[in-house]
Known about the structure:
Chain A is α+β, with helices and mostly antiparallel strands. Helices cover 37% and strands 33% of the residues of chain A. By secondary structure, chain B is mainly alpha-helical. Chain B has one domain. The two termini of chain B are 28 Å apart.
Amino acid sequence: MPLRVLKKAAGAFQKFGEFIASVRLTVVLLFVLIPVAILGTLIPQGREYAEYAEKFGFKWTGLFYQLHLNTVFLSPWFLVLIVLLGANILGCLIVSVVRKKRTFGFILVHLSLILLIVGGLMSATMRIKGDLTLNEGQSASSITHREKTIPLGFELRLKDFELQHYEDGMEKLVIAIPGEKQAAEYRFRKNIWTEIPGANFQFRVEQFIPDFRFDMASRTAYSASDEPNNPAILVHMKGKDEDYTEWVFSNFSDFHMTKERPIGLKYIWAQDTPKAFISHVEILEGGKVVREQSIRVNHPLRYKGFSFYQASYDSQAEKWTGLAVVQDPGTVVIFTSIITIMLGLTLNIYFHPARKKNRKLET
Amino acid sequence: MTEAHFLSGAFLCYLVSLVPHAFVFFKKSSPKMERLARLLVVLGFLAQTVALAIRWKVTGHAPMTNMYESLVFFSWAFVASFLLADLWLKISRLGFFILVGNLAILMYAFSHDAAVKPLMPALQSNWLVLHVVTCFFSYGAFAVSFIASIAYLLPLQKKYFSHEQLDQVIYKSILFGFPLLTLGVASGAVWANEAWGQYWSWDPKETWALVTWMIYALYLHLRLMKGWSEKKLAWVALTGFSFVIFTYVGVNYLLSGLHSYAK
């Protein structure tokens, strides 16, 4: 009797093993994972309850929370699917190796996929990420990750923050002084007085409206939308005897001037695209500077297992920077798997021995 | 001569090549017309290559940073894939449909703003070229497989094409494009890690690219391991390309994410 049960169990286990190592399961898992991934893009992920309730109503929001559809890619059932896919690939790989059915390229590709899943799981469980906001001169020696303080083991100080603009991409105010041959171009920052050389005049831009409209009843200017359909700036001009403000419109290509106000103003609007935002930082250990580096987008700083990325900045006064601090042991595994998967695919598809043989036979 | 001159020249070459291509499609054996059609496509391709080179020089960066530039590049990669496929698989009879598709891509490109815009910091990376080139070459190959799938599924196809030939075109185009798509997605992940400190963030564009990759992986497994063939498989290839299009265009307009500059 126990032998029969044992045999039955062994048979069931073998069937289960065959199912796990079957291409049928691969196909089923792909058919399941595709709509699941799509669902994760159609339902906004990781938002606040109120946002879902407003968008989808309480009934749907409740369902989303119950089924983890608001965090599909972090949900336990998604994790089960991924682990099952990993087990399936491993099973298929073992069968192929045992039966000596597959090429080296095939084995490499599928081994890399397992490595990719392992790396992803490592990142999901071991990744540390914290945000640092530093003013110029300020330093930090720890980050907060999931409400825990993590010491960096060194000190990071922001020496200086620099925001670079494209010369052609900046908006300009062109000022024509009566009697001067050429008008002068000024790049400006809001609410900062700028002297106009040789004119005893200074100006400052006090307001920007992207889609200018004027309400005649209240005599106030407002923006009809956020789109730059009718960009306008309010310029404050101050001279020896004069002090006035004037709206200058980008869509009005001529100089704004009157008999009473002979200084011509022309506003050239441009989408302000920053060229680079750079954090000049230094690393201190035991009070001594051990390294100086500039952090910019695509150029992180790496030191003692931590990577510092340029994440945000103070667009108004350009005085503080926002850095993302990351430590992720899964990254190395992922990058290794990328290299091996590409090697395997290249070998298996572009240099497949069977295909080469066929081609030889054809010729 | 400017980029616009060369691009217009390329468009004209592709347009004129429709005539000999139509002739090749209806008449089975017409080597002279075939040669003329190929010559016009090659001329158009060369003109488009020069147009891309000029834009690269003028802007100072690879012309792949907005919708206009990427569409022109996609069209170029599509023609390159067609020329390669024609060289190996002799698919000149499909040329008419491929050229119509390519002209549609170019016309769609022309409906976008072609103005040169400054490059935002996230795009200032050497990864840009590898990521975009590999993605669009894979899209070009998949587009060829898509045209062949349509031809395969059309009721009158037997009159003009052999089943086996179309099947080979679909399969080999996907086989050629799949490693390129893999490299495209992988290089995007490495770049994202370099720019934002996270190689994968389940951003809609990333997720849809992964879904597209899974569809083509499914195609290869169904064909090679499960023995699927004929119409069922052609439908999978067709679905795969509809996902390519949604990943490329649809996501930009319907789902917001990290690739919002691609509009």
